Amino acid sequence: MHVTYYGQSCVAFDFGGTNVLLDPFISYNDLAKHIDVDTLRPDYIFLSHCHQDHVADLVKVQQNSGAKVAAIVETAAWVRKQGVPKERVIEYNFGGTLRLPFGDVKMVYALHTNSTPAGEYAGVAAGYVFFVEDKKIYFAGDTGLTMEMKLLEDLELDWAFLPIGGHYTMDVDDAIKAARFVNCKNVVGIHYDTFPPISIDAAEAKAKFEGNGLQLFLPGIGESMAL
């Protein structure tokens, strides 16, 4: 079981041969120009929300792969409008858990706005908890620090993917608090460095996490790591 980071909030999980892609934004990211988006063949795509920097490559990747796309109801409606066949779209909502061949995926709260790239209503943003074999993985998506995260503290999470860039989401300091809220010591940073407002000092960020008894992993774009 491993994950590959593709920049911004785009990550790809390999769950024992099943490939799950989240928030595909690659070809429009100047930091990820060396990634050939046409080579991606996920079995499933999960969207945390519908902002451009999370869905820009959705249609191309879905058409190339035939992946099923899972999202909150209103974002799922937008996905269908992009020409993705309705039988390839899975809509669900907070509290819902998908029972999929590779494991279970529960939709959880995220504190963030949501609209389509055209500015239309797209429901609200969400996060996900993946229950795969013996691993529990939290993908927070775009979110501010919120007390709802404490609802996850008893899950004994193995990994938490948390935004750390600030400005539009949590910053490093709030992500440290979030890691405590969800009771997870292994954090992979997402949503940072893509644009000037969300640039971070990586060494300083890692030192802050370490000083709080936590590990912050910042894989390079295109780099994979074991989970």
UniProtKB/TrEMBL annotation:
SMART domains listed in its UniProt record: Lactamase_B
Protein keywords: Hydrolase
InterPro entries according to UniProt: Metallo-B-lactamas (IPR001279), RibonucZ/Hydroxyglut_hydro (IPR036866), UPF0173_UPF0282_UlaG_hydrolase (IPR050114)
Gene Ontology terms, MF aspect: hydrolase activity
Metallo-beta-lactamase domain span: 7-191
Domain of life: Bacteria
Any one Pfam family match given in the protein's UniProt record, by short name: Lactamase_B_2
Entry keyword annotation includes Ribosomal protein: no
Keyword Hydrolase recorded: yes
Entry-linked NCBIfam families: PRK00685.1
Official protein name in the record: UPF0173 metal-dependent hydrolase
Source species: Sphingobacterium griseoflavum
